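Notebook, p. 212. Picked up where the previous page left off. The plan for this session was modest: take the two constructs that came back from the sequencing core last week, fold each one, and keep the raw output in the notebook itself so nobody has to go hunting through shared drives later. Recording the first one now, exactly as returned: residue sequence, then the C-alpha cell string.
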Amino acid sequence: MTNELDCRGLNCPAPVLQVRDVLEKEAPAAITVIVDNEAARQNVSRFLEHQNYLVSSEMLGDEFRVVGTKGEGDEFPEMAFQSSAAKKRRGEGKKIMVLVTSAHMGHGDDGLGDMLMFNFLKTLKEMGPDLWRVAFVNSGVSFTAEGSEAVPILLQLADDGVQISACGACLAYFHLEEDHIPGAHNVPLLTNEERVEVGTIYKQVGPTLARRRGLELTCSRFYGMVERIISLSAGRPIVVYCWRGGLRSHSVAMLVETCGTPASQLSGGYKSFRNHVTDCFDKCHFVSPLIVMHGMTGTGKTEFINGLDPAQWATIDLEGIACHRGSAFGALGLEQDFTQKRFETLLWNAFRVLPADRPIVLEGESQRIGKYSLPGRLYQKMAESCKVWCHASLDTRIKRLTAEYARPEYRGEMLEALERIRKKLGGPRYDELKTCLDGWDVEGIARGLIEGYYDKMYYKHRPWTPDLELELEDYRQAEAGLETFLGA
C-alpha cells in the first residue's frame, strides 16, 4: 500500500506531524510526501529514516518528492517510541510543564525566531494529556496578549484542560495588560496563579468550595487593600469593577463600605465598559462634525493639527495615540507596545473629553496605523466627512521630514525600515538611499523617499474630491484659511 501526502504550503513541523499521523494510523509500506521547501524535505526525510524507512528525494520544479519505503518483513518496530515507550521514559503519572521565556526562538533574525516559536506552540497539543501547564514569562508573555496569533492555540489548549499562565509583572513591564478604564488603579484581589486555582476548583468541583478557597487566600490582605483603595481615591468617589462585575468586585466594594467609606460596584464590570466603547465606534455619533486632513507625507499635517488654537478647535492626534506615524518609517523612536483594546480605549477617551462646541480636526489615515486598526465605523465615518487636501512644496516637505528623521538614535531603525521596502524601491533606488543612510545624509534620504516611494505608493488612487485644498507652507495662514472655509 502506497500513500501520497501533499504538504505543499506547510512550514515545519506541520509536514512531519502529518507524516507521523499517517504512519501511526496506517503503517504504509511506502509513502510519498510532496513539500515545497528545503527545510521540510530534510525534516521529513530524517523522520522517515528514524522510522526505518529507506528514503530518497528528488526535486521537480519548485517542489520536492520524498519517498520512503519499508523493507520486507520489517514490522515497524520503532513506532512505539511515539507513545508508550516515551511515557515510560518520562515516568508513569508525571506531567509536563512548558516554560516560554521569549517571543523568539534562537538568536539571529527575529522574524524567523517568531515563526519558529509560533510553530512550536502549535505542536504543544501533540503532548496530549501529559501536558499540564504552559507558563509565559519575560517577552514570552506577548503570546498571551490580545491580538496575538497564538491566542486561539492557547484557548484550545485551555479547553483541553491545560493551565495557561502569564507573569503579571512581565505583562505590566511590556505594557501588555489588555486594557483598563481610564483613570483606574489595579488593586488585585487574587494573583494570576490564584485566579487559575480558584477557577479550576469552580469548574471541577463547584462554586462553594471555590469561594471558600478564595476567602482562605485573600482574608489576610483585606486591611491593606482597603487602605490602598482609600489612599488612591484621594477623597473622590470609589467605583470598583472586575471582569464581569461579579463576586470579586462586589466583595471588595462591600468590604470598603463596611470600613466606613462609600463605594459602588460597576454593573457588568469591564465587560460592560468594553461593550460601551465598541458601541460608540460602531455608531460614530460624534457631537461635532469631523474635518479630515489628507495630504502627502511630509506636508506637516500632524504638526498643523497639534498646533491649532485649542480655544477654537477640537483635535484628535490619531498617530500620537497609536504611537506610529502611519508610514513606512512611521515607527522611528516609537513603540506600539499595548493591545488593540487599549488603543480603542485611549481613542474613545480622547473623543469623550472633547468640547462639544467646535469641529473635530484629525488626520486622514488608512484603516491601519502600524499594527492597530481604526475601530468600528470610524474609517467609514472619516470617509463620509469633510475632507481637506493639504499641499506643501517639495523643499518644505524635505525640510520637515529631515527635521523629523535627523536623530542619530534612529539610524538602526531607519536601516530596518529601508530593508522592509527594498523590493518596492527597486535595486537602484535602494542603493541610492542606502548610500545616503551610510553617509548620514538625512536630507538625501528624505528627498529619495518622497520622490521614489511615498509619492508613488500613497494616495496613488484617490476616488474622491476634496472639499477644500489648503496650503500648509505657513501654519497660521492655513488655520485662518480653514476657519474662513468653515465659516462660509
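Okay, moving on. Second construct, recorded in the same format:
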Amino acid sequence: MSFPEDCKISSMACVSPEAQIGHGVEIGPFATIEANVVIGDGCKIMNGATVCWGTRMGKNNRVFPNAVVGGVPQDLKFHGEETTCEIGDNNTIRECATINRGTASRGKTVVGSNNLIMAYCHIGHDCVFGNNIIISNACQFAGEVEVSDFAVIGGGSLCHQFTRVGRYVMVTVIIRLRGRCLIWLERSRSSYLIIPRLDALTNSTISFTMSLLGISASMASRACVVLSLLR
C-alpha cells in the first residue's frame, strides 16, 4: 500500500505496507508501525515508538519516543484472539508509556480524545478511558479499569483491576485505588472526588481546582460543605 505524499516517514522507520497511514503523518527514525494499524491524519509517531497490530488511532495524536501502543495484553487468558486498541484524537502519549490492546473479555482497549498520558504510565487490557483526562507520570492501571472524563490522576498512583473512576475525580500523588474508594459529591452518579487525607485538602484548594475545570461556583461550594461534614 502506498502512503500519502504529504507524510514524513523516516527511511530508518519500519512501517508495514499493510498499515493505513493518514495525511500529514510524521514517523521518526526507528519507529515501528505494524500491520493492521490505522493512524489518522496529522499524527506524529516519534523515534523509537511502536504502534502494534490492531491499533486504531484517530487524528493529531503525538506518541513520544519508546512508547508502545496496542501491545499484546499481559493477561494469561489472552490466546492471540483478534482484538483492538482504539485511540481517539488529540492525545499526547509520553515517553515509555504502554497501552495494551483488549482480550476476549471486552475485545478492545479504548482511550478517548484530548488526554495527556505522561511518561512510564501503563494502561492495561480492556480499559476504557474517556476524554480530557490527565494521567501523571508512572501511573499503573490494571485490566478493565474505567476512567471517566476530566479525571486527574496523580503521579505513581496504582489502580486495581475493575476499578471505576468517575468524572472530575482528582487523585493525589501515590495512592492505591480499589473498587469503591470514591466519595460521592454530587447527585449525578458519575461525579466524584477522591480525598485520601481530608485534613490535607482545604476549601480554597477545592474551589480553585474546580474553577480550572470549568465547574460552577455553586457546585464548588457544595463540595466544600461535603468536605466539612467528612472531616
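Notes on construct two before I forget. The longest helix spans residues 217-230.
Flagging for discussion at group meeting.
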